[in-house]
From TrEMBL:
Protein name: Large ribosomal subunit protein uL23
UniProt xrefs under HAMAP family: Ribosomal_uL23_B
Keywords attached to this entry: Ribonucleoprotein, Ribosomal protein, RNA-binding, rRNA-binding
Family assignment from sequence similarity: Belongs to the universal ribosomal protein uL23 family.
Task performed by this protein: One of the early assembly proteins it binds 23S rRNA. One of the proteins that surrounds the polypeptide exit tunnel on the outside of the ribosome. Forms the main docking site for trigger factor binding to the ribosome.
GO CC field: ribonucleoprotein complex; ribosome
A single GO BP: translation
InterPro entries: Nucleotide-bd_a/b_plait_sf (IPR012677), Ribosomal_uL23-like (IPR013025), Ribosomal_uL23/eL15/eS24_sf (IPR012678)
Length: 109
């Protein structure tokens, strides 16, 4: 696990803003339950980098991260009456944990 205590306070505050919410879908549940490595899906800030996501997960959830994959999902066009609107874009991070690591949303700081 990286030594997050030695990182500057401003960087730690930035890491607290990187993770927005967990992704709770059929695909995310299937990925979390299957495979040799535990994996979680998180909605993250649109300007977050892979290294920031890794550091944020290690800081908030006290687990060791193996790898991070990022997916940019474009917002869909939606109609409201005669007006066209657009949902916002999403950035999803799939975080793989090292073997022996477990993830529990209930134990978040």
């Amino acid at each position: 696990m990286s030594t997050t205590n030695t990182k500057p306070q401003a960087y730690q505050q930035r890491l607290m803003q990187v993770i927005l919410a967990p992704v709770i879908t059929e695909k995310a549940t299937f990925i979390a339950e299957s495979g040799a490595k535990p994996q979680i899906a998180l909605r993250v800030a649109s300007d977050a980098t892979k290294s920031e996501i890794k550091d944020a997960v290690e800081l908030l959830f006290k687990v060791e991260v193996d790898s991070v994959s990022v997916l940019n999902r474009k917002g869909k066009l939606k109609r409201t009456g005669r007006f066209m609107g657009r949902r916002r874009d999403n950035r999803i991070a799939y975080v793989s944990l090292k073997k022996g690591q477990e993830f529990d949303f209930a134990e978040v700081n």
